Amino acid sequence: MDFEKQTDIIVQAFHYDLVDEDTKPISDVRPGIRKLNVSGDDEHSEENGSYYDVAIQYDVIPAPAMFEASGLIHQIVQLKDYHGDGSDISNSDWQLLTRPLVEQLETLIYETTQLTLGQPVNLNFKAEFDN
User: Fold this and answer.
1) Rounded to whole angstroms, how far apart are CA atoms 2 and 76?
2) What is the full per-residue pLDDT of the chain (131 aa) written as tens digits?
3) How far apart are CA 81 and CA 61, in angstroms?
4) Residue 75 in contact with residue 105, Cβ under 8 Å?
5) Which of 30, 58, 70, 85 has the fewest CB atoms in 10 Å of its CB?
6) 68: Cβ–Cβ under 8 A, 6 or more apart, which residues?
7) Cα(107)–Cα(117) distance, rounded to whole angstroms?
8) CA quadruple 35, 39, 41, 42: dihedral positive or negative?
9) Is the backbone peptide bond immediately before 25 cis, with ω within 30 degrees of 0?
10) C-beta separation of 29 from 124 below 8 A
């Protein structure tokens, strides 16, 4: 799937808490997509593809539990020659669309744990896809 980024990655929410070591681990990284209505927008045309808000919502407690991070990261993209609602996007295309967002989350956690724990935690997330 060919796409063009329309905005930088936006960290809409990032919440971080230290937790007890006996807290149960969670790795919940969920992708989502929402088609945007650009009718009446003189700058954007859907002739070559529609515009979407691609997002990941996450709630993560790694093992061994030291912290919990949750929030929402998204980016506006134009999917070239695609006008659907996102329900028929393949897993490989989902991974292509969301990987930059997941990398941003990994960077946020790496840098935050460097500051709060004195050493960075490097996590490799994979978003959970329904397909």
Assistant:
1) 14
2) 899 999 999 999 999 999 998 999 998 999 999 999 887 776 777 777 899 999 999 999 998 889 999 999 999 999 998 888 888 999 889 889 999 999 999 999 999 999 999 999 998 876 555 44
3) 38
4) no
5) 85
6) 15, 16, 17, 19, 23, 26, 59, 60, 61
7) 15
8) positive
9) no
10) no
Going by the DSSP 8-state scheme, the letter that residue 95 receives in this structure is: H
What is the distance between the alpha carbons of residues 59 and 30, in angstroms, rounded to a whole number? Answer: 9
Query: For residue 94, which of 102, 115, 22 has the smallest C-alpha distance?
Result: 102
Block residue for tokens 């002739």: 47
Tokens of 130: 């329904």
Contact 16, 68 (CB under 8 A): yes
Give CA separation, 102 vs 33, 84, 128, in Å: 14, 23, 11
Indicate the burial class of 20 (C-beta count within 10 angstroms; 0-12, 13-18, 19 or more): exposed
Give yes or no for a contact between 49 and 83, defined as CB atoms under 8 angstroms apart: yes
